[in-house]
Prior knowledge:
The structure is a single chain. The protein is an alpha/beta fold. It folds into two domains: 4-142 and 183-285, Rossmann fold (3-Layer(aba) Sandwich), CATH 3.40.50; 145-182, no CATH class. 26% of the residues lie in helices and 27% in strands. The strands form three sheets. Strands 11-6-7-5-2-12-13-1-14 form a nine-stranded mixed β-sheet, with helices on both faces. The longest helix has 20 residues, at 255-274. The chain is globular, with a radius of gyration of 20 Å. The chain starts with a strand and ends with a strand. Bound molecules: S-adenosylmethionine. The site of S-adenosylmethionine has 18 residues, from strand 13.
Amino acid sequence: MASDRLIQGDAFAVAAGMPAKGLDAIYIDPPFGTGAVQRGRGHSYVDRADDPTAFVAWLSPLLVDSRRVLADTGSLFVHLDYRTIHYVKVELDRIFGRDQLVNEIVWCYSVGGKGRRGFGRKHDTILWYARTESWAFYPDAIRVPRRGGSHMRVIATAEGPVQEKTDKKTGRVYRYPVAAGKVPEDWWTDVETLNHSDAERTGWPSQKPERLIARILCAVTKPGDHVADWFAGSGTTAAVAQRLGRRFVVVDREGAAVSIIEKRLAAQRGALEATGNEVPPLEIVRDHI
Ligand SMILES: C[S@@+](CC[C@H](N)C(=O)[O-])C[C@H]1O[C@@H](n2cnc3c(N)ncnc32)[C@H](O)[C@@H]1O
């Protein structure tokens, strides 16, 4: 079985060396461009200088290569915040085409500081661009329960439990299979950001929750598909891909991040194999040039 890959190296060099059309999904969470040193528990990395034009100029070649290495059914997800989203979105429109923007996902959370001179800044934005108009999407893999309420009731039928909803205005009765649930909207309030004592925490700064990445990967890939993360950090994408049976290549330039990912994947491998799952071997490349 071919190996999954964990690479210590430069995102740009690794992406430039990948063959065309080999990937089904790419998720990236680039260093945001705050100019700050990002600190986690015992770990830190230097963020990009605070100049959005320079940030886009820096990121652009990687976005171009990301499009090149995506299969025709593949998708790119770019995770950004309010300071960079508008600059990068224009660039992605240029590279992928405006029609290829599938969703601007707003990920809302509540943990963190409160607003004192304005509204609390409690969301990130994830831009989803498809390589072509025939992107893959698996709605049944990401359904969530419909919101209940007094006008919703669950009743047993021959086809299994259904939720029954009466439209108060028209009196019409709608029935949905309970198992089916609904496809989430493009604003997500049901995935909380990690708190300090979260079991998932690795100590790497700006670590994203596994549930967030799992929803993205399940939406656009199936088991056996290939995914990449050029700015792996603590390895959230790798951990989710390994758990969900997706093949992966992840990259970070920091040796400390690669060590964290190595440990994280080894621990999860143990748990997966103990429950009878077959996990592909992991190739670790240090000092990729
Ligand atoms: C915002 S963090 C990613 C966090 C990650 N999504 C997670 O859940 O842990 C950005 C990462 O990009 C890495 N990085 C910055 N510039 C890079 C480059 N040119 N090539 C590879 N990695 C880079 C940093 O070391 C940092 O770990």
